[in-house]
Amino acid sequence: MAYGADQGVPFPLMAEYIDRIFRGEKPSDLPVQATTTFELVINLKTAKALGLTMPESFLVRADEVIE
């Protein structure tokens, strides 16, 4: 099970920042941005191998369930 920042979100932000730096802006003048989207991924195969059972309500809330 993993809960963390959505890995697809930071890359477009990085590209925008790089573009702004190449156009002459100072990196110290750019605002700090944090990820606002997170995802929950559950690996059921590993959970079963460990003898864990996941409640259905928990699985419904997950962004991705690996079987």
Task: Please specify the SSE layout and strand pairing.
Elements: E1 2-5, H1 10-22, E2 38-43, H2 44-49, H3 56-61, E3 64-66
Parallel strand pairs: 2-3
Antiparallel strand pairs: 1-2
Shape: rod-shaped
Strand order of the largest sheet: 1-2-3
Helix content: 25-40%
Extended strand count:
3
Largest sheet: 3 strands, mixed
Radius of gyration: 18 Å
Task: State the separation between the terminal residues, measured CA to CA.
Answer: 12 Å
Brief synopsis:
By secondary structure, the chain is α+β, with helices and mostly antiparallel strands. The chain has helices spanning 10-22, 44-49, 56-61; strands at 2-5, 38-43, 64-66.
Word description of this protein:
- It is a single chain.
- With 67 residues, this protein is an alpha+beta fold.
- It has one domain (2-66).
- Helix content is 37%, strand content 19%.
- The chain is built from three helices and three strands.
- It has helices at residues 10-22, 44-49, 56-61, and strands at 2-5, 38-43, 64-66.
- The protein has a three-stranded mixed sheet.
- The chain is rod-shaped, with a radius of gyration of 18 Å.
- It starts with a strand and ends with a strand.
- The mean pLDDT is 90.
Question: Which descriptors would you attach to this protein?
Answer:
three-stranded mixed β-sheet; rod-shaped; 3 strands; 67 residues; single chain; 37% helix; alpha+beta; 3 helices
